[in-house]
Specification:
globular, 19% strand, seven-stranded mixed β-sheet, alpha/beta, Rossmann fold, 7 strands
């Protein structure tokens, strides 16, 4: 697919679906929101190092099925969400199941965790991982559904918490994603999102890169736009927290995507001059 096709919503979805399908099958390396060598389909040391850097507890990572952590995140929304036993949680863009399995363990046997992903290969991988999760925990409380985050396969007012990790920026219709979040949340429900956001506009040469799109950079929007989308969807108590160190860490690990992006940046700048990891929390009014 040529870079010029990335102005059409379905072309964007197909680029993302193709890129993440390759990651799910273990055919791509370093092409997502991840450090060098972590997107090989294995729970590699680099993937665990990245997850620890963005806030995951070692005990949570150690309990995961092999291959659930693909190193695709840019934060820890499960920690941000402060999950409680018995809650219903939905993860947007669930990938290999990392956050769903952590959420499932936290909400326990009386709760439930759903993962939604538009890539069939990711759903297949997550469902395979779920077999190991059930054996280890004894919980039958996770489920993975194929679907687009702009049109969630879930009922109105059905979730206590919605989480997402470095996925919403990939959507060609971000306001619609936030409207879906508001629709699916129960009154009083909360959202906890970790995503990449822009602190200033990217050079046009980077915005058109397929690799940057799949890597969660070219699709990112300004910090204030994320807040506006959540507010216009009807959510309140919106809090934003920047985590610049994540992007600096990606640069230090010599991730090939970020190395290519840096080549296209103006002299004297770095990736974190334009991009930050952003935690977003909000609630749906009662």
């Amino acid at each position: 697919m040529s870079d010029s096709n990335l102005t059409h919503p379905e072309s964007i979805r197909e680029a993302v679906r193709t890129g993440y399908g390759a990651i799910a099958r273990g055919e791509a390396q370093g092409s997502g929101c991840c450090a060098t060598s972590c997107c090989t389909g294995d729970a590699s040391p680099a993937a665990h190092e990245l997850a620890a850097t963005v806030g995951y507890a070692q005990e949570d990572l150690a309990a995961l099925p092999d291959g659930a952590n693909l190193g695709l995140g840019c934060g820890n929304p499960t920690a941000l969400a402060a999950l409680k036993p018995g809650e219903v949680v939905v993860d947007l863009g669930s990938g290999g199941g990392l956050d769903v399995f952590i959420a499932g363990a936290k909400v326990g046997p009386t709760g439930r965790a759903y993962g939604v992903d538009m890539t069939a290969d990711m759903i297949k991988r997550a469902r395979t991982n779920a077999i190991t999760y059930r054996k280890r925990t004894g919980f039958d409380n996770v489920e993975f559904r194929l679907g687009e985050i702009e049109h969630l396969p879930l009922a109105d007012n059905s979730a206590d918490v919605i989480i997402s990790n470095c996925v919403i920026n990939l959507s060609p219709d971000k306001p619609q994603v936030w409207r879906e979040i508001a629709r699916v949340l129960k009154p009083g429900g909360r959202v906890a999102v970790s995503d990449l956001a822009l602190t200033q506009d990217l050079p046009e040469s980077i915005r058109g890169m397929v690799e940057a799109l799949v890597g969660c950079v070219a699709g990112a929007v300004r910090i204030e736009e994320n807040e506006r989308f959540a507010r216009e969807a009807g959510l309140t108590d919106i809090l934003l927290e920047r985590r610049d160190a994540y992007v600096d860490g990606m640069t230090e690990w010599n991730d090939p995507l970020y190395a290519k992006i840096i080549e296209g940046l103006p002299a004297g700048t770095k990736a974190s001059s334009f991009v930050t990891s952003l935690n977003i929390s909000a609630t749906k009014p009662r």
